Amino acid sequence: MPEESSRREEDDELLRKMIELTDDLEKAEGMAHKAADEAVAAASKAVLQANPSLDVNKKKADAKRAVEEEGQEEEEEEEAQGGDEILDEELKTYHEVARAWLRKSIKTVLSNVLTEPKLNLSVQEPFPGTLFKKGLSESDIETRLLKLGVRCRGVAAALDEAVAPEQVPDPLATFFKRLVAPGQRFPEGYFLPGERARLSLPDGSNLTPEDLSDEDAKFLLGQFLYTRVLCQELVLRPWTCSIGPPIPPGKNEQGNLKIMAFLLYRAACAAMAPGGSHEAVEDAAVRAEIGKLPGDEAYLVDHTAQLVPDMRDKLQAVIDRLYAHLVAKRKPKGEGDAAKGGGLQVDTGDGDAGG
């Protein structure tokens, strides 16, 4: 029939346009990922040019992997030594590299928060509407909490993809090994009060303990990635990190970002605390930087009692996975030559790793 034939032609045309649009989107996404990879590579190259010694470490690691791929055994293990001071300028450079590395993984989630029309993640006790003010129902609250959970879990899932061994830039991996090495000296003022307390650092000391445990090493790694890079920068102020327009968004969008940064920080602190309690690690200065949340904070905390532990477990697994890739094992002080160099044994391959 003519009408049916015409409808079929319209459907075919619509399908063709959808396929073309999908292809265009895939090409655009591929170009975006390529640009992000090039940005990370450029930042890594800049680090190597500024610090030639790091290129030596990379070449050694590459040579070791080549030998292992040929099936030959090699007993030598390259070690990220503690004791060589991490300079302030060097720390800033690697901070930028880490930010670019994580940004390409979580950019989609944060871009959605910045651009989705009328997205509101603030919650409070439901209340009836009035002539001049729209009410907030239990259904509204449930919807907001659901959207909040999806986005926070999306960030955690993106981080898990980012720490795959092949995704971590070699210079950044080398820096991470130094970051968690026993007896490592940091720039003055680097450590937050909570970090100093956790590591039992004497007043004025910026040197990590020689007997730094695996858990404390993971704590240092998590504090750098989660607190300094993820929560304080990428999530709280994405517009300063090449996510979205380079200008502050509206009050509502900033409020949504604050809520996400707040919950991710609580989850990260719980992931880094021995007993899983965020209060043991949470730093007042970081919490103050996140600022006052829209809605009712106490109500938010109460109604995310399941979300935060869920994210805690995911963030803990991410750090465990990254740390296992960086550090194969530790030897007690006095056992072999490695103990004299700080106690860290680093395996740049993907074999069995302890953490």
TrEMBL record:
Acidic residues composition-biased segments: 69-87
Region described as Disordered: 52-87, 331-355
Record field: compositional bias (Basic and acidic residues): 56-68
Protein name: Uncharacterized protein
